[in-house]
Amino acid sequence: MEALSLPAALALVAGGGAGLSPERRAALGASLPLVQRDYRFERVWFWGCIQGVRGAYYIAEGLGPDRAAPRSRLYSLNCLDWSLLTPATKEMLALAEQLKGRFQGDPSFEYSLAEINAEAAARLVQSGKEPVIKEEARLIATIEQIDRAVGIVPRGAFVKTPLGSVHENRHFEGLSLVEAKKLSSYFHFTEPANLKNKTLLEKADLDPSTDFLDSLEHDIPRGSWSIQLEKGGTVVVLRSLLWLGLTFYHVPMTKQFGYVYFGTGEKNLDLPFML
Amino acid sequence: EGGHGPYQPHEPGYGLDQPGYSPYDDEIPDPQARMLAIKNAKAYLLKTSTKSGLNLYDHFANILTKILDEQPTNTVDIIENISKDVKWEQFRKKMDTLRDEHLIPPTFEAAEKYKALFVKEGGEDEHEELEEEMGKPSLPNVMETAFYFEQAGIGLSKDESYYIFLALKNLNNVQPIQTCRFWGKILGLEMNYIIAEVQLREGEEEEEIGEEEEEIIAEGQKEIGQAEEEDEQKEKEPEPPKSTYKPPPDIPKEANGTGTNKYVYFVCNEPGKPWVKLPPVTPAQIVCARQIKKFFTGRLDAPVVSFPPFPGNEANYLRAQIARISAGTHVSPTGFYQFPEDEEEEEEEGADTYEENPEFEPPPVAEMVESLATWAHHVKEILKQGRCVWTNLAQKSEENEEDEEEEEEEEEEQQEERGQPLLTLISEDEGMKNIPAWTAQASTNLIPEYSVAILQSNRWPGAYAFASGRKFENIYFGWGHKYNPESHTPALPPPAEAEFPSEPGITETVDPTVEEEMAFKAAQEEALAAAEEEEDEEGEDD
Known about the structure:
The complex is a heterodimer of chains A (275) and B (542).
Chain A (H helix, E strand, L loop, with lengths): L5 H8 L8 H18 L3 E9 L4 E8 L8 E5 L6 E3 L4 H9 L11 E3 H4 L1 H9 L5 E3 H16 L1 E3 L3 E3 L5 E3 L8 H4 L5 E3 L11 H6 L19 E6 L4 E6 L5 E5 L6 E7 L7 H4 L1
Parallel strand pairs in A: 1-14
Antiparallel strand pairs in A: 1-2, 2-3, 3-4, 5-6, 7-10, 8-9, 11-12, 12-13, 13-14
Helix pairs in contact in A: 3-6
Chain B lengths: L30 H15 L10 H15 L8 H17 L10 H12 L5 H10 L9 H9 L7 H17 L2 E10 L6 E8 L3 H33 L27 E5 L7 E2 L5 H9 L22 H16 L1 E3 L3 E2 L16 E2 L8 H6 L4 E3 L15 H4 L7 H10 L24 E5 L10 E5 L5 E6 L2 E8 L35 H28 L1
Parallel strand pairs in B: 1-12
Antiparallel strand pairs in B: 1-2, 2-3, 3-4, 5-8, 6-7, 9-10, 10-11, 11-12
């Protein structure tokens, strides 16, 4: 969610019971503008909070002029001092998917790879490093996975210019109430994977400036999103069932939208049994 | 290129900017013609489109009016969008001669319901009751609890908390309630549940039990009637062999007011909707709920499709999960509750009641955070059987003579289950792998004098407790499932029944195929024919 609209947005996602204490909110209000100034971001999003066993990680993302470019991610343990995270590599993603269990809350905690993946451990030993993976790497990989899988925006909120860069659509007035209840009005805000697989009829209806991302309709497994109208229908809240804790909110007919993650950072692999 | 003028006499463009000397003068010789050209251009712009009935002149006029009225920044970048919007507005006004029915979006209905919460009912009666009541008020101070939890970042928005507060007050007025508490919120797929934990005044519960029993008796009689009819029908036909399988007797549920059914729970989907009472929980439901993991949909009558099949619908599953969460995560500072001293019981497990300790001195917040021994469970643990107090089924079925034989075998297997006694410290809770069962934190490190001790459960993510001085409270916000470090593995179906063993008297052989039967028949006929021929021959010989 936008750092500037943080207080209002937190009130809208509070239906799930998770939020920030007044101390953290005040700290964010002070530190996020400084992050924007220091790193020269155009936009700063408060991504959310991953609860570890002994502490929590607060994550923020910074965006440059092209909103679809890879985002810079920062983490903090107290909402005041932010550290930049390195971009995720494929190896990190592959290894982190095999790690199970809660985050510990300490970025330098080391998971021993020998139990989990003997090959990777052997490779690391050969290249002279210890066969461990740090919690920081797991954090980077988890954030990347969550963003790719369930980071969503409403349709029409972003436009793609002919040059390929993506900007916010200044003409976006919000989804109507009818549109807001449909899963097809929301897009994954990552590289599209399914766009080319649509039939010609469907492609003819698309507007290439706004429909350049995958919609949520064809997510597998079906039913992995829960759409609810809260506060008497004034806010539409989508909660992901695959990554429990990701909440997306949008006030129909206004420009307010955003998503935030408050959870333990674990994928819900039991989803098919639970539906 | 640099600027063009003023030209010097020796340069080529000298004098061409004077009227009458421009390069196009031979094309437009006089002003009259120029005016005509302008009129033609304007007439062209005014041409109405055959498709849409608009013309370019009016359209540009509207665009410019809109731009000058609104004065957006960077207009040239969004000019196409502005043009589209202007066209859109045109269409909407012209096409509909009928007025649309005034749509009432659901937001307004819900707003009405919320407003109804604020109405104060029955002014005079309430004053009298307030004077008579002594002791603790039955309505909890939801806003105060919400404030303490907010210090840890847990809780709903203030508006929603206040609506829940008012809804609880309504519940208080409608139902005969002795104590009431906001238990928490469970999220569902379509709707969420807001749950209130309530103790009804004595006497009110018995009426409801009577009603339930009457219903069960009436149903039982109906079943007997139906069975008799079926028996009559069956006597006419040869009956297939009846199975001798008798299902194991149901473990009886605990009486209202004790064990897992100590409290009564009311739920509603949103504050303002009517409260629905959840039925008491049976041990079979708890045992089954431990084996399945399903999302709640938000409708109490939704079926729970699972294996092993859950005995009940979503209302029962919800009640079972509430019972498990309460038993696992309701804690209080050690020493706040104590066993009543006048009762002398040898077995502590039987102790079901506790009372507040008037001499309780709360330890400082730092100590509550550091040592988990400062917290204790005040809800009894649920045994494997599904109850808090173990029952020996063998005792009850002694009345049935038929079951004695089976029973003697079972007695050896059933051993009395003992759970943790009431008021055990939570430091004795086992963790899972390398994760402790509880995480304790102080709400703030910057201002330790006013910080609040917060406990988060790792076994039931979403269960929280806070303590500050003499005040403490438990709450739950989550999806209603237990944390499992490994993935959930559903129960396997039972193994197939063993087949009847092959004995000399009964062996299993393959049925003969049609060819074999025909061959056998043919062989038999040949033998018969051969035998007849021999007889004929013998007959002829004679």
